[in-house]
Prior knowledge:
Blueprint: E1 3-7, E2 10-13, E3 18-25, E4 33-39, E5 46-52, E6 57-59, E7 67-72, E8 77-82, E9 91-98, E10 113-114, E11 118-123
Parallel strand pairs: 2-11
Antiparallel strand pairs: 1-3, 3-8, 4-5, 4-9, 5-6, 7-8, 9-10, 9-11
Amino acid sequence: QVQLVESGGGSVQAGGSLRLSCVASGYTYSRYYMGWFRQAPGKEREGVAVIGSDGDTNYADSVKGRFTISQDNAKNTLYLQMVNLKPEDTALYYCAASARAPSPSLGRGWYDYWGQGTQVTVSS
């Protein structure tokens, strides 16, 4: 059974930094995409950043240059380094995994496995 467990969320002021982590277990696919999605109150869940098993990445335009996605395969851990955070980055951040996406897609419909989320709050 696949489990994704996020951590690292918190409250920061605008301009601050956070690093999110997602530990994956029970995921045995050799080819996959893993990503970070976020959902703010009253808004749809949106893709933030995705990385593939081959290291290919994709970022939402709103976070390019500020967020970096990475993975440590030895630790089965996905990371999202976030710098220069803005109030509009405030959301519940989810880790997700897909074995069937054809590319590093930010479309949530491709992702079958989801974590419970970790809250990020950025104050101005």
